Amino acid sequence: MTVVWWRRIAIFLLALSPLAFITYMTVTQQLGADPAKTIVLFTGEWAIYFLFFSLSVTPLVRLAKWRWLMVHRRMLGLFALFYALCHVASYLVFILGLDLSRFVSELVKRPYITAGAPAVLILIALGVTSTKGMMRRLGKNWQKLHRLVYVALFLGWVHVLWQVRSSYFHAVLFGVITLVLLGIRFYWHRQKLQKQKKAA
């Protein structure tokens, strides 16, 4: 129990380190010519990183037998939500200047927002229902709801892809990771169905 407790603290502090870094860079004015854009991109990237981290837990538990990771999966998922909300907040504050009337026109001008917005809404829904109490209330529907994280991950990748102006490096890298994380789950699901057919 003590090991789990200290591991949770260590993961929590590590997960906050990107926020500490971008805060330090902001205060010391080291964000370059367009600080607002840098903050928005940075927080968005870390939202996707934490989605990758949380969705990597199950494969690592099953393939590498790192069972100790399972207890930390929810925290990693909540940090994906945290950085996604930081991403949205920094966009609204630093890019739109809290002028919400511009948001609709931005949706038309920048289609990648139409991919990112539902991804954030999904993460909010998953975050709100991540407690043990909500698991009990939703029952079997809880697992169905939380499978939407795969949709959020795909939409997050589309959000990145549609923003590309020059280099496709990050979009391709994120796409490969997304394909691996979703592909391995599709493979496992197919194997499960085949076993059920044989058993029947």
UniProtKB/TrEMBL annotation:
Name the UniProt record assigns to this protein: Protein-methionine-sulfoxide reductase heme-binding subunit MsrQ
Q: How does it assemble?
A: Heterodimer of a catalytic subunit (MsrP) and a heme-binding subunit (MsrQ).
Where can this protein be found?
Answer: Cell membrane; Membrane
List where the protein spans the membrane.
46-64, 76-100, 112-133, 145-162, 168-188
Q: Which family is annotated?
A: Belongs to the MsrQ family.
The record's free-text note on cofactor binding: Binds 1 heme b (iron(II)-protoporphyrin IX) group per subunit.
* Membrane topology classification: Multi-pass membrane protein
Pfam families from the xrefs? Ferric_reduct
Recite the UniProt keywords alphabetically. Cell membrane, Electron transport, Flavoprotein, FMN, Heme, Iron, Membrane, Metal-binding, Transmembrane, Transmembrane helix, Transport
Which HAMAP family does this entry report, sorted A to Z? MsrQ
Q: Which gene encodes it?
A: msrQ
**Main location per UniProt?**
membrane
The protein's required cofactor(s) are namely:
heme b; FMN
What's this protein's function?
Part of the MsrPQ system that repairs oxidized periplasmic proteins containing methionine sulfoxide residues (Met-O), using respiratory chain electrons. Thus protects these proteins from oxidative-stress damage caused by reactive species of oxygen and chlorine generated by the host defense mechanisms. MsrPQ is essential for the maintenance of envelope integrity under bleach stress, rescuing a wide series of structurally unrelated periplasmic proteins from methionine oxidation.
Residue ranges constituting the Ferric oxidoreductase domain according to the UniProt record: 43-156
